Automatic annotation (TrEMBL):
Keywords: Aminotransferase, Pyridoxal phosphate, Transferase. This is DegT/DnrJ/EryC1/StrS aminotransferase. InterPro entries: DegT/StrS_aminotransferase, PyrdxlP-dep_Trfase, PyrdxlP-dep_Trfase_major, PyrdxlP-dep_Trfase_small. Signal peptide: none annotated. The lineage of its organism: Bacteria, Pseudomonadati, Campylobacterota, Epsilonproteobacteria, Campylobacterales. It comes from Sulfuricurvum kujiense (strain ATCC BAA-921 / DSM 16994 / JCM 11577 / YK-1). PANTHER family: DTDP-4-AMINO-4,6-DIDEOXYGALACTOSE TRANSAMINASE, TRANSAMINASE. It holds the Pfam family DegT_DnrJ_EryC1.
Amino acid sequence: MSIPFYRVDVGGDEREKIDEVFDGEAPNIVEDLEAAFESYVGASYALATSHGTAALHLAMLAIDLKRGDKVICSINAYPSIPEVVRHFDAEPIFIDINPDTFTIDLDKLEAYLAENKSKKLKAVIVSHVAGQCVDLDRLYEIAKQYDVKIVEDASDALGATYNGQKIGSTGADITCFDFSPHLRHNVCNGGMLVCDDEEIMERAKSLRNHAMVIEDEGLGYIYDVVDIGSQYMMSPLDAATILVQLEKQDDNIERQRQIAEIYNERLADAPHIRLPIANEEHPYSLYIIKVDKNRDSFARELAARGIECGLHYIPLHLLSYYKSKYSLRVNDFPIALRNYQQVLSIPNYAALSDDEVEEICDAILDVASTRV
């Protein structure tokens, strides 16, 4: 039996909500999702977008990123992070990572800010890899001290918490979510931008639809364009599906934690394997192990046994565009490089049965036992 890296669990509730959209019974479904999301994460404002990258791009528009500006991000991030920066002809600045959490190293971040004070430095984008957060209290203090905005990439952190507060309500200037993140593809696309700043939200809301302003509400077709925006409106069908899935998210996280407990117990003594170093609030949106050598051959052997794995992420300085654009060398980010050579994400999602989890464990133990 083959076990995919991710499988979407869609039931009758999603289909019923989609039928409501088709039947014209949910004309405000996108607004309903935004209101539900505000309530769920505890944010003042939420803005639905066509996909996660759209939310990130709108965040850069909302902070008025311009050519020549600089934005700091982790070298261990999905390409969408520096990509949205480059589309403004702005410059991403890469920082190495913490070897245990795979997130941006705050010591290195603070050291860079102390040595590179510039009005062109606009923001720091922080990715919560696997849903585990950096020390946000310290991050926000650093941001305040050096006067930079914090944009949190919460693609893996929907429903995750920090000191009991859901990500999106902890103090970032903007937080961006992706409902179909890398290798965990949903049946729908969508993103969400949340913040507590009304001015930022109003600007993002305008720019989401070509910065178009309707001048005659009665007619509805007389409009003006007041800025340069884009078309990032969420589909009502996507909104219907996501609205139902949002109601299940806390239960999904609980199931992910149950599966992680099984992995932690079954794989504790597996040779050549290092398990995640996690805090108590880790949602295990991803369960990332480290294989001490020959990670890819390990993954191939799992694939031969029907177990599909993932990788989070290929460090940005190893990708052709960024390597060439910024003359980056392989050893410029040694922690991320070493991490990349070892990490492997194994399946962990609510739709996995206990039997499937045991099968994954059996396969990993079998492969690990043959390594030398």
